[in-house]
Amino acid sequence: MGIHVRTGFFSALSASVVQYVLSIAGIAVLGFVIDFLAPSFQGKQNQIQAFKVAAYSMTAAWVAGMLNLVPSIALISMLAVFYSLYVLYCGLPILMKNPPEKSVLYTVIVVVVGVLINMFVARLATPAMMQSSMHDTSNYTVSGEVSLPGGVKVDMDTVNKTVQAMLQNSTAVQPIASDVLKGILPNSIAGGFSRSEISGFSGGTVGIKGSTAEGIYQRGTARIRLSIADISGVGFMGALGAFSVESSKETATSYSKTGKVDGRMTTEEFDRTSGRGKYSVVVASRFIIDANGTGGVTIDELKLPIIALIAPLEELAKSKS
């Protein structure tokens, strides 16, 4: 664009080292998030496979980063970024074993994490390269709305505010203990479903924590898996409000749709022939609650327990904020 910036050798070298180390750490964080979210999209948790998805999907964008050495052709590297997103979309169902139809929302949430990680790395690396007397990095912001294929829109102002909060708050929000989440799950579900099993999990890596609780409910051959996942410790959930996703598909016997219901991101899927379906909602920008039913359930039987959990979880989020 006719603009040239020259920086000192040691400033550039230190920025490169900082960015390299943080990028590697970012892949570890991204891999953990992919692994942690897998059950929410009917995938299988496997940390090694999750790290493969994170690393392989980023490879094209990293290799194309060499084009940035020649500013006049640097924009071509954006094609590699889109290809990396495509690799991520294709890789999730193969390595994490989630149903292909779940990959769109799964990919969107992982991309939110990737955007935040890259912006966070850039914010930390820039001061190492630019002298503060010449540039005020606190004024660097990204704004406006970005439209993506498939009806996805991203409010970059919301993303930027989330990054600012991450930079200002050194202590991550602690997730709710799994025993507390287990206590919120009902003993039974309307329609004659009795709880036959309950489990919980809390854990983390590289300073990122999360917790889950899951109950299995039976009525003859009909079965509902009701789960709550608190991933506030990841630090990116606030950016979910930046995404507006509207999608729907319908056949003679089934339908699926994703969008905001009462301001909350909601996914609804149901097959009338088999009595199989799913209903999930993102609550308070930190909880994902999901009801997955098989063996002859109705969509109302999946919705009712989710609706009943929204208010308690919102109150819990307020008390722990």
Can you put this structure into words, describing what you see?
The protein has 2 domains: 9-134, no CATH class; 178-320. It contains 7 helices and 12 strands. It has helices spanning 9-37, 47-64, 77-95, 103-129, 156-168, 178-184, 299-320, and strands spanning 145-148, 152-155, 188-189, 193-205, 208-219, 222-230, 243-245, 247-250, 254-261, 264-271, 276-283, 287-294. Strands 3-4-5-6-12-11-10-9-8 form a 9-stranded antiparallel β-sheet. A hairpin with a 2-residue loop joins β5 (208-219) and β6 (222-230). The longest helix is centred in the first third of the chain and has 29 residues, at 9-37. The N and C termini lie far apart (45 Å).
Query: Would you report the number of β strands?
Result: 12
Mean pLDDT: 78
How many helix segments? 7
Radius of gyration: 21 Å
Choose one word for the global shape.
elongated
The biggest beta sheet reads: 9 strands, antiparallel
Cα-to-Cα separation, first versus last residue: 45 Å
Strand content: 25-35%
List unreliable stretches of 5+ residues.
128-142
Structural class: alpha+beta
Run of helices and strands = HHHHEEHHEEEEEEEEEEH
Main-sheet strand order equals 3-4-5-6-12-11-10-9-8
List keywords for this structure.
single chain; 26% strand; 2 domains; 12 strands; 9-stranded antiparallel β-sheet; 321 residues; 3-stranded antiparallel β-sheet; 7 helices; elongated; alpha+beta
